[in-house]
Amino acid sequence: MTDITKGQLNRRTAMGTLAGFAAAMMLTGCGSSEEGAVAAPANADGPPEKPNLKLGFIKLTDMAPLAIALEKGYFVEEGLNVALEPQANWKVLLDGVIGGQLDAAHMLAGQPLAATLGYGTKAELIAPLSLDLNGNAITLSNRVWDMIKDDLPMEGGKPRHPISAAALKPVVDSFQAQGKPFNMGMVFPVSTHNYELRYWLAAGGINPGFYTPGDVGGTMGADVNLSVTPPPQMPATMEAGTIDGYCVGEPWNQQAVARGIGVPVVTDDQIWHNNPEKVLGLREDFAASYPATTAALIRAIIKAQQWLDADNGANREEAVEILSRPNYVGADPAVLAASMTGQFTFEPGDTRPAPGFNIFFNDFAGYPYYSDAIWYLTQMRRWGQIAEDHPDSWYVDTAKKVYRPDLYLAAANKLVAAQAIPADAVPQTDGFREPTAEFIDGLTYDGRKPNAYIASFSIGLKEGQQVTASGVSGT
Questions:
Q1: Cα angle, residue 324 at apex, residues 105 and 69 outer, rounded to 5°
Q2: What Gene3D superfamilies does this protein's entry cite (predicted)?
Q3: Backbone angles phi, psi at 225, to 5 degrees
Q4: CB–CB of 54/85 below 8 Å?
Q5: Which residue segment(s) compose the domain that 206 sits in?
Q6: CA distances (Å), 387 to each of 14, 370, 462, 463, 469, in order?
Q7: Do 161 and 242 reside in the same domain of the chain?
Q8: Is residue 1 situated within a structural domain?
Q9: Reported confidence tier of residue 18, pLDDT bands at 50, 70, 90
Q10: Do 403 and 372 meet the contact criterion of CB atoms below 8 Å apart?
Q11: Is there a single domain that holds both residue 399 and residue 326?
C-alpha cells in the first residue's frame, strides 16, 4: 500500500471498513433510470466481463489518472487491457462514448449531466468517479494584461490574488464604447471552464450572457462573448487575436506564459476552493452489462489517483515525464511542471506555492458527490441552458441519476478490504458536501438548497425568468 502522510490523513473523516461497506450498501441502486438500473455493487465481483477497453481523453494534465493507471500497471492488476486514445475535442469524445467507439472517457463533469437532460445530445450517461479537483485557470492576453496591471492592488511587489474580474470591467466597457466585441474562449458549453469563467466574470460585475433554447452560443445580453476552442489550441487562438483571454485546464495556461503571449490572472481554486473538475464518464447500459468491468476500471483509477498524491507529491516529477510523452499530453516537461509540482506561475518572476492546484486523491477527490453535480445544474439554470424552473427535489433526483457514489464505494471499499488504500480515504457521507462559502464572491453554496443558491446571484436568471430571442422575460 502506498503511504499517505499523516497530514493528509488528518484531513479525512475517519471510518472503518465495515462502515464503508454499510454506506455502499445503503447507496446501492441510487440514481437508476426507469429504463434499467445499473447493476448493484454486490454484482460487481468476479473477473471483468469485457477485459479489453478503449478509453478516450483530451490532452490535459488532469487525464493523469488514466495515464498512470496504464503506465504503473493498475489496469493490468485489475484484469484489464486498456488502450488510451486522445480525442480531437470534447464533442468528438462525447460522441465516441455515446456511440460505443469508446467504452469510457476522461469527461467534463457537465457532460453526463447535460446528455442525460438531453441538452445538445440525449444519452443516459453516468459518472461513478471524480478524476480530480481544481486544475484550471483564466489567462488574459498580454495586451489586456497591460491594460489592467497598473491598477491592480499590490502585495509584496506583486499583484494581490485572487484578481477580481472587476479589474477587467473598464477594459470591457472601453471595447463596448468602441463598438468592438471582447472575446474569450472556453472549451465546451457545459464545461467547468464555461461555468468558472462565467462565475468569475459575473462576480466582477460583467455579464457573460444567456442561452436561448437550442442555442449553444450563450451570448444573449453579453458584455463578453464566450466561444468554444479545443484546449490545446487556446494559446495559438489567443496569439492570433481571435480571443482576448480564455479559461482552460493545464498545461495550456502555462503554455501562454512560456510563449510570452499571456498571463494567468486567477486559478479555479481561487474561484471555488477545491472545485470538482473531470469525471470518468460512461454509458449507463455499459455499467449495467459489465458491472465487474466497471468496478475493476474504477479500482484501477483510484489506485492511480492515490499514487499521484502520495507522499506530498513525491511522484509528481515522474508523472510530469509520463504526461509529456506525445501519446499523452505531449507538452514540454517544464511547462507541465510549472503547475503540477506544487507551484503555479502567473508570469515570469511570479511563481507561487500552489500545493492544491491539482488534487487527485486527497480530500476525497474521487468521490462523486451529488452536491457537485447539483452545482453544475444550478449554473445551467442560471445561464439559461436549463430553460425553466424546477423544485429542489428535481436537482437532487437528476444528480442521483447521473452521479453514482454507490459504484464508487463498492470499488473503493474492496480496495480498503485488500489494504490497497486506507479506510479513512473513503468518506462517510450522504453524498452532500457541507455548505461552503469558499467562492471568490463569498456566496454560500448548499447543495440541498439549489433554488436559494440560484436566487442569491445578482447576475443570472431568477425564478420565473426565461430567455427568449428578444431577451430575458418573466418576474
A1: 45
A2: Periplasmic binding protein-like II (3.40.190.10)
A3: -90, 125
A4: yes
A5: 136-274
A6: 41, 21, 11, 11, 13
A7: yes
A8: no
A9: very low
A10: yes
A11: yes
